[in-house]
Every structure is written in structure tokens, then in C-alpha cells.
């Protein structure tokens, strides 16, 4: 019942009606008072998380919603299941998937409509959406600069030649948070010096080279 009602509210959520609809979502979240596992609130968070990953165009508004929920949800609500069996956060695993999943390439048209290709494309889209979502949460002071720098460093360091999915993730992250990080000039200069070198590697496709050059030029012209 709660899932259906919250989904209906999320379907209608826009900047214009954000305050009223987000207030209603928070009311549902606070129904987890007295639950040991905070299952209602967890379900609402799951819905927001999945939507932000599936459609990056709405990452900013979902990040605003998370920020408001963080401030307004009853702090007494208990959630005892925020870790998986390996002790890692679910978000952490999915963030890695954003740049680790490689969509199978093939010149055979039937391969491009296969279940394997569809599943990989869907997983990659969700991972890239999550990277954008994480960037938007950082812009709202929900994540630290150190986390962003660690992500950028991990994406830009590679052995032999870079993987294109990692470079695409790097471009999305820098496009989202680069301006906010640019007060540390020397560190950002080192990132972009590396991007310049990477963009000249012959092993990269033209699509990724153009993405890298767009990010480089965006900073130069800002």
C-alpha cells in the first residue's frame, strides 16, 4: 500500500510541487516509527534510489528529496539492515558497477537484442545514473570532497589502457561535481592534465575522446 502511494507521488514529483509532495513522502517515511527494521522508510529509500539510477535527468530532484528526508525524518527510526552480508553498503557496490560493467559489443544485430546485451545495458545505465546521483548528493553536502576525489582518482588510474566505460563514468562525475571541486586548483589541474593525455590515446574510441575533450574544454571556458 505504501509502495503504491509513494510511487504515485514520485511519478508526479516536479520542482513546482516539490515541497507539498515531499512533505507527503516524509509522512509515509515516518510511519516507520516503532519498527525495528525501518522497513517502510527503507522501501521509500529503495524506490528513490532505483528511480535516480534509472533516469539520470531526475537525479538532482531526487537528491534534494534525500536531503530533505535526512533533515525531516524522525531520527528515532531504527534501521538494522543497512549492510549486506559482506558488510558493504549497497550503494558502494552499485557505484563500482557504474564503471565496471562493459556492454558486449557485436556487429551481429541479433546479439544487440539478446537478453545478455539488454541486461548489461540496463545495469550500465543504472550504474551511470548512480554516479550522477552521488554527484548531486555531494553538491548538497551529503557526501564529502574526499569521497569525490577518491572516486575520480580510482577512475583515472589504470593499467595499460583505460576502459571506455570507466572513462565515460569519469566524464559524468566531473561534469556533475567538477565546478564544486575546482577550488583545489593543483589537484584539479593534475586530473585534467591526465585527461589531456588520456584523450590522445589511440586505443580510445572517438566517442570517448570527444567526451573527454568536452569536459576539458568546459573547464577551460568556464
From TrEMBL:
It is found in: Cytoplasm. SUPFAM superfamilies: ARM repeat. The keyword Cell membrane does not apply. Keywords: Cytoplasm, Initiation factor, Phosphoprotein, Protein biosynthesis, RNA-binding. SMART domains: MIF4G. The keyword Cell division does not apply. Belongs to the eukaryotic initiation factor 4G family. Pfam families: MIF4G. GO terms for molecular function: mRNA binding; translation initiation factor activity. This is ARM repeat-containing protein. One of its GO terms (cellular component) is eukaryotic translation initiation factor 4F complex.
Amino acid at each position: 500500500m505504501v509502495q503504491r502511494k509513494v510511487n504515485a507521488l514520485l511519478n508526479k514529483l516536479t520542482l513546482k510541487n516539490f515541497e507539498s509532495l515531499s512533505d507527503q513522502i516524509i509522512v509515509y517515511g515516518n510511519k516507520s516509527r516503532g519498527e525495528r527494521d525501518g522497513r517502510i522508510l527503507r522501501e521509500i529509500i529503495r524506490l528513490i534510489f532505483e528511480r535516480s539510477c534509472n533516469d539520470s535527468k531526475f537525479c538532482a530532484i531526487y537528491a534534494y528529496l534525500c536531503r530533505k528526508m535526512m533533515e525531516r525524518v524522525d531520527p528515532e527510526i531504527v534501521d538494522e539492515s543497512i549492510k549486506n552480508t559482506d558488510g558493504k553498503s549497497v550503494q558502494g557496490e552499485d557505484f563500482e558497477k557504474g564503471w565496471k560493467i562493459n556492454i558486449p559489443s557485436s556487429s551481429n544485430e541479433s546479439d544487440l537484442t539478446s537478453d545478455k546485451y539488454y541486461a548489461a545495458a540496463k545495469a550500465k545505465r543504472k550504474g551511470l545514473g548512480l554516479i550522477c546521483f552521488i554527484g548531486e548528493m555531494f553538491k548538497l553536502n551529503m557526501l564529502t570532497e574526499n569521497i569525490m576525489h577518491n572516486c575520480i582518482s580510482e577512475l583515472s588510474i589504470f593499467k595499460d589502457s583505460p576502459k571506455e566505460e570507466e572513462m565515460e563514468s569519469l566524464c559524468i562525475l566531473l561534469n556533475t561535481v567538477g565546478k564544486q571541486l575546482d577550488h583545489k586548483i593543483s589537484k584539479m589541474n593534475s586530473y585534467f592534465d591526465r585527461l589531456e593525455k588520456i584523450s590522445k590515446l589511440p586505443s580510445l574510441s572517438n566517442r570517448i575522446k570527444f567526451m573527454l575533450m568536452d569536459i576539458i574544454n568546459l573547464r577551460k571556458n568556464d
